Amino acid sequence: MSFEETYTELENIVKKLEGQKVSLEESLHLFNKGIELSRKCLEFLNESKGKILLLTDELNNLTEEFKVVE
Amino acid sequence: MEKNYISVTQFNTIIKNIFSAEEMLHNIAIFGEVSGFKISGKHAYFNLKDKGGVLACSCFFYSKTYIPKEGESVILKGSPDYYVKGGRFSFKVDKIEAVGVGALYKQIEELKIRLTAEGVFDESHKKPIPKFSKNIVVITSKTGAVIRDIATTVRKKNPVINIIIYDVKVQGEFASKEIVDALNNVDNFNYDCVILARGGGSLEDLMPFNDEQVVRAMFNLKTPIISAIGHETDFTLCDFVADFRAATPTAAGDMVAYDYYKAMYDIFEMQKRIRQDALNILDNNMHKTKYLVASIGSGMERLYKNNLARLKVSDMRLVNSMQALQVKREHSVDKFITSLDKLNPTRILKSGYFRVYKENLPIMSIKNIKVGEKINVLGADGRLLANVIEIMEDEL
After folding, report:
1. Rounded to the nearest 10 degrees, what angle do helices A3-19 and B260-343 cross at?
2. Per the confidence metrics, is the pTM higher than 0.90?
3. Beta bridge partners of B323
4. Chain B contacts of A20, Cβ < 8 Å?
5. Is-contact B68 B96, C-beta < 8 A?
6. What is the per-residue pLDDT for B113?
7. Please, which residues have CB within 8 angstroms of residue B157's CB and are 6 or more apart in sequence?
8. Chain A contact for B315 (CB, 8 A cutoff)
9. CA–CA dist B95, B68 (Å, integer)
10. What's the Rg (C-alpha) of chain A?
11. Contact A56/B293 with Cβ under 8 angstroms?
12. At CA B184, angle to CA B133 and CA B128, rounded to 5?
């Protein structure tokens, strides 16, 4: 599942809970599911942040090397 | 007065007749040197002289005959004439013929006119002299100073050009044939340029370079050719047909050799410029790339931050809605308890009400009680026994 898909599912759960028309058991189930989805989204984001930093670092290094060649 | 005289006109006429009658003097050829050649209208007047004498000459319609230079030796053809009106004797010239150098000039002039008419000297036939020659051939006498002058001049400017010497006779009766052979020969070797050269000399010496065959061989040459014959003031037909006429052999050397040191410098400068241009382009692109890299980085970071913000909002909503649900549920349970509580009889008693019993039966109306009767009163924290003293009925 992608970040967007995970996030959309999280949003749907939030909407359902905000509608307040759920039973206690269901609401607990939804809440747990929501927390789990939110954690997944955060993992996605942290992973992507790491990748972004790594790639921009690499690119910066490349352009710096380029300058040395000159 | 006795008439023992004649008039000037009569005398002059007699003189004129004497000259006219002497046929021996008619159409006579006289050799001498031209002096004081003057043109007046269509006629020319001059003196013909030698060491011993001077002869006044007049030439009517001079343009139909050869025009001599001052001091030139010529042969005049004509007849003596005496001018009655002016009382002057002159030799009436019908034809002037050049001899010696004059004859050579005339011969050259005629050839020049003929070849010009043929188009041999046309500018359109002239080939450009290569700017950067590698192999040049000099057709000249290897014994003269000419080849040394050319080689020295070339070497001053250029240490790499190959100078090939093609030895020929440059004067005398075999010169023109040798030059023609040389010209035909050098065309087979892909030389960049030919120099035909000779030092200064008399007109007779330079005659091979006015030779028709030499001129034609030069005209037919595929290799560009520079002529360098004699001194600056000498002109030969070779100069007219050559692709370039150098005033002197030194000038020819200067013309044919490119400045090697300047060329090296120019090439070096161009290399530097090209290198700098390339570096500039590289630099520009690097800046663009860096900017893009930064844009990508910041774009990605923005996207990350946006997603994180979205997630935080969702989390908050998740927790909030769950909390709201909890609060709602708790609230409804409280309400229920409250409702239940309301129904609890002790709760009513607690608020200060008392319940009245008679003989353990609750009394709902005053009508069931009489004055003096004993009643039990139940409160929240205990009970009491009371006597009824008075009963008042209220309108409710």
Report:
1. 20
2. no
3. none
4. 321, 324-325, 328
5. yes
6. 93
7. B254, B257, B258, B259, B260, B261
8. yes
9. 11
10. 20
11. yes
12. 35
The encoded tokens of residue A51 equal 């990748």
Contact present, B58 and B45 (Cβ < 8 Å): yes
Residue B184 DSSP label:
H
Interface test with A, best of B285, B304, B319, B321 (most A CBs within 10 A): B321
pLDDT at B122: 93
Collapsing DSSP to helix, strand or coil, B196 comes out as: strand
Q: Encoding tokens for residue B314?
A: 């969702």
Mark the ranges of chain B whose per-residue pLDDT is less than 70: 1-2, 395-396
- DSSP codes, B54-105: EEEEEETTGGGS--PPTT-EEEEEEEEEEETTTTEEEEEEEEEEE-THHHHH
The whole-number pLDDT of residue B244 equals 95
A70 has a pLDDT exceeding 60: no
DSSP state letters, B15-66: HHHHHHH-GGGTTEEEEEEEEEEEEETTEEEEEEE-SS-EEEEEETTGGGS-
Distances in Å between the Cα of B249 and the Cα atoms of B189, B230, B293 are 22, 8, 67
Do B259 and B160 meet the contact criterion of CB atoms below 8 Å apart?
Answer: no
Q: Which of B304, B310, B313 to mutate to test the interface with A (most CBs of A within 10 A)?
A: B304
CB B197 within 8 A of CB B146: yes
Look at the alpha carbons of B366, B370, B372, B378 in this order and tell me if their dihedral is positive or negative. negative
Contacts with B27 (C-beta within 8 Å, 6 or more apart), sequence order? B77, B78, B79, B94
Picking from A7, A52, A67, the nearest residue to B300 by CB comes out as A52
| CA distance to B45, B132, B259, per residue, from B268 (Å) | 68, 17, 14
Measured CA to CA in angstroms, residue B280 lies from B42, B276, B293 at distances of: 77, 6, 20
**Contact criterion met (CB below 8 Å) for B237 and B137:** no
The whole-number pLDDT of residue A63 equals: 66
Half-sphere exposure of B70 (CA within 13 A, CB side): 4
Length of chain B: 396
Give me the count of residues in chain A. Answer: 70
Structure tokens at B294: 């930064």
| A36-65 tens-digit pLDDT | 998 998 888 888 778 877 877 777 777 666
Contact A9/A37 with Cβ under 8 angstroms? yes
Q: Strands across the sheet with B135-140, in order?
A: B162-167, B135-140, B193-198, B225-229, B244-245
Tokens of B347: 């709760």
> Is residue B194 packed enough to be buried (19+ CB in 10 Å), middle (13-18) or exposed (0-12)?
buried
